[in-house]
Amino acid sequence: MKQKQKKREKAELESLLLYHGEEILLSGQMQREKLFIQHGTVSCFDHSVAVAYTSLRLAVWWRIKVDRRSLVRGALLHDYFLYDWHEADDSHRLHGFRHAKKALLNAREDFRLNAKEEDIIVKHMFPLNLSLPRYRESVLVILADKWCALTEILAVFSVVHRVKAIKAKLQKAASRILSTA
Ligand SMILES: [Fe+2]
Ligand SMILES: [Fe+2]
Predict the structure, then answer these.
(1) What backbone torsions phi and psi does residue 42 show, to the nearest 5 degrees?
(2) Near ion ligand 1, which residues have CB within 5 Å?
(3) Which of 52, 84, 108, 148 is most buried, most CB within 10 Å of its CB?
(4) What is the model's pTM?
């Protein structure tokens, strides 16, 4: 019974993520994130989906009242720097310190962001970037990002199954959109 309930809760979170994140997830620029490796063998796209899912999960676990839409959108865009940071290039220097700002500038160009979403993106590298997060949503993404990065680097327990399920649902949503266009 508990197992069933857990499954249902996970499916609800996936649907929530798709509902709030669909515009971003289906955009051409976001799809480009699939070309860039983030950690280990995980693409930047999959990492971002994992961080959004984990942020939602933490909010539910800890019963923190959040603006779910901003949480999902900010988390999805937190690494929207749109290059492969493993490639040697002068513009990729000090990636760890600079990419949050770059992600924010790119995201501002492609999406209408609110103050929370901007804060989530630009503060997600705390404490490497020293400015303090302003919203609880930003703190959740900071924690989710560190957790996902660690599991991806160590190639241990991760939310890879959830990411797969979300991508399958996204595929369905995309076909639905294309077939009604
Ligand atoms: Fe990052
Ligand atoms: Fe990240």
Answers:
(1) -90, 130
(2) 79
(3) 52
(4) 0.91
